[in-house]
Amino acid sequence: MIKEQKYYGIHACWTIWEKRPEDIVRVYIEQSNVKAFSPLLKWCAQNKKAYHIIPTAELDKVTDSVHHEGVCILAKEVTVLSEQEMRRILAAEKRAVCLLYLDGVENPHNLGSILRTAAHFGIPYILGEKLPPLSASACRIAKGGAEMVRLVALKKPIQTLEWLKQRGFSFFGTSSHGGTSLYQTRFPPKTILAMGAESEGVSKALMKLASQSIKISGTGIVDSLNVAVATALCIGEYCRQHGNR
Description:
By secondary structure, the chain is α/β, with parallel strands linked by helices. The chain folds into two domains: 4-76, CATH 3.30.1330.30; 83-242, SPOUT methyltransferase, trefoil knot domain (Alpha/beta knot, 3-Layer(aba) Sandwich), CATH 3.40.1280.10. The chain has nine helices and eleven strands. The strands form two sheets. Strands 7-6-5-10-8-11-9 form a seven-stranded parallel β-sheet. Strands 1-4-2-3 form a four-stranded mixed β-sheet, sandwiched between helices. α1 packs across α6 (136-142) and α5 packs parallel to α6. The chain is elongated and about 55 Å long.
């Protein structure tokens, strides 16, 4: 059974309406946003979807947040893409493609920022064994990116990564402690970038699969970058080498 979830934030809500209007159940909106969202409200009326124009204080309670930006949509949750479907699509992929693997990244703010970056650069999938839930907060921070990039939960990540390597993907582990500089690394057209949690980094088991370990060199004043920032730099360098698609 598909669950329902409240999503909030202007960009997140607008993108839900654009990408999957059939999943919308109900809309809550402040008076100040009625004009901007008039096409959505008109669509709701035509399709017998309930919408409520409510004051800020009530919307705070509906969303359990003060960061709702004046709009909230109750909709069906985005389903995690099955590993089988991802394999089917990637097995036929001949173009350059970069995938992300998140190892222990759980903070919803980081996930939201990573989704926004991934959508900006055209990254289709984020893989992981234990991916964090796609919360309303993460979706707001993603600015619509959560509707563009699919999460794929892997039951046996090592086996899946080996399968991807057999089909031409190169696996790169990131580290704040050592490895080749990001800007001296040449990424193959088919690349997987593994990003680890800030406290522990990419696990040893995953690093054993890596074609190469890469680092983002800095002054050394701080130990490492925030994982979302590091992800943006790595994806940006990949796209610089292969063209921003």
